[in-house]
Specification:
Elements: H1 16-24, E1 28-31, E2 34-37, H2 44-55, E3 60-61, H3 63-69, E4 80-84, E5 97-101, E6 109-112, E7 115-118, H4 120-129, H5 135-148, H6 152-161, H7 168-178, H8 185-195, E8 211-212
Parallel strand pairs: 4-5
Antiparallel strand pairs: 1-2, 3-4, 5-8, 6-7
Helix pairs in contact: 2-3, 3-4, 4-5, 4-6, 4-7, 5-7
């Protein structure tokens, strides 16, 4: 009996020309930089596996890549974005990705089909904090918040665990635009605005520069 093919295919499994021919024949579809049988639905598991192949072992899918896992619309955001706690744990894949070293709580990482991904709430906060906030980031953050049930209070709780961060008020305003607002939103918002004092050191201020592969 022939061995079952993996859920996500790469040129390690079949030659690239054969995969592209299969796509033209309607047998597989693209998922990130990989391929998947049309018999399999486009879900978080398949997307996570595709990102894990690109990022490599020891890297946590983050930002737009994590948002894509959690259901953000559109094609995979290439190059993929990931984070690490320690570069020594990274096994370089060389498939193209951007990796940053950051501070992150273990509770802000989950495993999807063996691939580490930032939680929906952490993902929304990371998107809201990015310097190059664009319409794609706002849409992705709103998609994740809506599909994964991330409320404004959930996102603020993640932000609060980081302490005083630069541009906090800007981040809070963005979160208010993308997250469903619960009954306690007015209280949370008031507390956030009182706490938003002078910017403190960023969680990434002492981090190493981004590693581009």
């Amino acid at each position: 009996m022939p061995a079952r093919l993996p859920l996500v295919l790469t040129d390690d499994d079949l030659p690239e020309p054969e995969l592209r021919a299969a796509a033209l024949d309607g047998q597989v579809y693209a998922v990130g930089g990989s391929w998947r049988s049309v018999a399999e639905i486009d879900d978080a598991g398949g997307r996570a596996i595709a990102i894990g192949i690109a990022l490599g072992a020891g890297v946590v899918a983050a930002e737009r890549s994590a948002a894509w896992v959690w259901g953000a619309r559109g094609p995979a955001p290439l190059p993929h974005s990931g984070l690490v706690v320690s570069p020594a744990r990274v096994k370089h894949r060389g498939r193209g990705s951007i990796v940053r070293q950051v501070v992150i709580d273990e509770g802000e990482i989950v495993t999807v089909h063996g691939v580490a991904v930032t939680t929906p709430a952490r993902t929304v906060v990371d998107l809201a904090r990015c310097e190059g906030w664009a319409s794609e980031d706002e849409t992705a953050a709103r998609d994740v918040a809506s599909q994964q049930g991330v409320t404004y209070a959930d996102a603020i709780a993640v932000l609060d665990r980081r302490g005083r961060l630069p541009h906090r008020t800007r981040t809070v305003d963005r979160l208010g635009r993308v997250c469903p607002v619960g009954a306690d939103a007015a209280l949370v918002d008031d507390e956030v605005r009182r706490d938003a004092g002078p910017p403190g050191p960023s969680e990434e201020a002492a981090s190493q520069p981004a590693l581009t592969r």
